[in-house]
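Tokens for chain A. Residues wanted.
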């Protein structure tokens, strides 16, 4: 065969056994490395962490608090919210007031805790396991109040008697899980055994091994992961696919709904205040009622605080009351804190002083046949916050037992007086009276005593806390004469009935101000500008339209003797 006929045959090189082995090893290493990387990055950890990583304690006897799904952790400046003492859980007093029930009032001077329901008054003494309900004794499972340094703690089991909250306690670490009546939550069940982790993600430490079928409360939804509260009081995360049967649930009330009863007048209240500064002024009743205003309630200023122990000055007169009753008038005696300088914090915050005040007022009413009490405590400091509203509660319960009306005077709502707590007043008092005046006074620039917009706003804001059927709108029967000169700004109050003559003497004419809904006068006298925002029957008519439009419980007027005959004709047009 010739060379041209020969085929070239290419010989295939044979792979080295060593190369093949290296390739296999390399591939195996890649698989192992990938698996290792997956294990590090994605494989769920089975490592368990301590609940103490979530529930932090500053002392061994501290109890951590979970309320309505939220872990409430005190700041460094605050005392522990809970303590465990002799195996019992106690909750710190200010925590209870802020988060659970503001009705508890503790007197640190005498070591007394008070609580008022709609019908009863509960009293607890420091160091005791017994308590009284309107004088009848009850017994708790342990000492009710616990003193720890400057802090006072209340036995949690005792709180359940009056505060509608469910709870259970767990240990290691100590914690209490609480739910208030009305709390809306989302419940679910674990579809299978599931690790409850500190955070969302498979690498987060396990806080609890959840069991299939266990109920959990869903607190937050992060998508693939959800935050839950377990039956064991653990807050942690599980995967969303690990739960089933989600449903919304409302925590039901355990305690009966409270019903606050109110003594009501037949028809709307038409009240006039009669300023009585001494016993002889009682003889001027006829003068105060000379204009026959058609009132159905008169409120003489008979009672004043006269010391820090709850004693009162008493100017009441049985003959005065009898004369009013003969005219078809009820008598609601006013009690004031203005005339005598006292320490209102001592009067209201110290239990025995507050009791003394309540008893003195009620006994004075019963002795003279008085029909009710009108509370007019003005310019209180915020230090009176708890004692004042507890005084209203306790006085209300005493008035109900003795068939007396209770009304409470209030400023228009403002940030500095919100602690007067008109909502609680409305629960306990029969009527809440809004003093819809002194928009401007000696501490302000010149202006109206009660412009239309001011009265509208005062009524609207008060109605957010007080039902219309309990709200009485009080109007001024006076104005102010303002002077603006080189010596500064001056003002003095003037009776409504004296204003027309004053304007005439000075040749002043009035102009109707639409926005204020008042007549306005201005003139210059001896180089001083004089300004008057007049209160008269025209301005009164506009105010009474607000009363009418809001279907309020009545009207009141400060004060009798400042009025004109014409004003009562205007009142009768709007108040039936």
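Reply:
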């Amino acid at each position: 065969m010739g060379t041209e006929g020969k085929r070239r045959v290419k010989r295939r090189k044979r792979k080295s056994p060593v190369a093949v082995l290296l390739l296999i090893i390399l591939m195996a290493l890649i698989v192992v490395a990938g698996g290792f990387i997956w294990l590090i990055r994605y494989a769920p950890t089975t490592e368990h962490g301590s609940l103490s990583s979530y529930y932090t304690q500053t002392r061994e006897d501290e109890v951590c608090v979970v309320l309505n799904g939220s872990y409430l952790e005190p700041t460094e400046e605050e005392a522990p919210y809970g303590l465990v003492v002799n195996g019992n859980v106690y909750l710190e007093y200010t925590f209870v007031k802020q988060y659970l029930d503001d009705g508890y009032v503790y007197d640190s001077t005498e070591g007394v805790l008070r609580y008022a329901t709609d019908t009863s008054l509960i009293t607890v003494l420091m160091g005791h396991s017994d308590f009284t309900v309107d004088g009848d004794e009850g017994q708790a499972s342990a000492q009710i109040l616990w003193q720890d340094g400057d802090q006072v703690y209340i036995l949690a089991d005792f709180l359940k008697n009056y505060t509608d909250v469910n709870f259970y306690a767990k240990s290691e670490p100590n914690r209490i899980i609480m739910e208030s009546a009305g709390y809306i939550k989302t419940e679910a069940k674990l579809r299978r055994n599931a690790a409850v982790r500190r955070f969302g993600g498979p690498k987060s430490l396990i806080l609890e091994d959840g069991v299939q079928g266990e109920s959990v409360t869903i607190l937050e939804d992060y998508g693939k992961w959800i935050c839950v509260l377990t039956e064991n009081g653990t807050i942690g995360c599980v995967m969303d696919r690990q739960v089933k049967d989600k449903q919304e649930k409302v925590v039901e009330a355990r305690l009966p709904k409270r019903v606050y009863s109110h003594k009501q007048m037949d028809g709307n209240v038409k009240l006039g205040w009669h300023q009585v500064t001494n016993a002889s002024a009682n003889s001027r009743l006829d003068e105060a009622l000379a204009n026959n205003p058609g009132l159905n309630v008169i409120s003489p200023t008979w009672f004043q605080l006269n010391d820090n122990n709850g004693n009162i000055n008493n100017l009441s007169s049985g003959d005065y009351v009898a004369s009013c009753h003969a005219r078809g008038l009820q008598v609601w005696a006013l009690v004031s804190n203005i005339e005598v300088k006292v320490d209102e914090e001592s009067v209201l915050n110290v239990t025995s002083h507050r009791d003394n005040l309540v008893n003195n007022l009620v006994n004075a009413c019963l002795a003279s046949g008085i029909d009710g009490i009108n509370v007019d405590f003005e310019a209180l400091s915020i230090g009176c916050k708890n004692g004042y509203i507890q005084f209203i509660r306790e006085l209300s319960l005493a008035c109900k037992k003795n068939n007396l009306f209770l009304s409470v005077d209030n400023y228009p709502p403002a940030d500095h007086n919100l602690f007067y707590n008109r909502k609680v007043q409305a629960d306990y008092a029969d009527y809440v009276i809004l003093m819809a005046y002194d928009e401007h006074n000696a501490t302000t620039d010149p202006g109206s005593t009660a412009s239309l917009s001011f009265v509208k706003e005062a009524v609207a804001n008060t109605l957010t806390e007080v039902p219309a059927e309990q709200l009485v709108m009080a109007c001024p029967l006076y104005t102010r004469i303002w002077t603006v000169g080189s010596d500064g700004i001056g003002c003095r109050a003037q009776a409504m009935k004296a204003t027309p003559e004053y304007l005439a003497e000075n040749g002043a004419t009035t102009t109707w101000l639409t926005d204020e809904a008042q007549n306005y006068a201005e003139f210059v006298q001896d180089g001083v500008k004089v300004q008057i925002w007049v209160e008269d029957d025209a301005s009164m008519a506009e105010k009474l339209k607000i009363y009418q439009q809001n279907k309020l419980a009545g009207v009141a007027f400060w004060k009798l003797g400042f009025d004109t005959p014409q004003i009562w004709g205007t009142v009768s047009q709007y108040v039936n």
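The radius of gyration is 37 Å. The longest strand covers residues 243-250.
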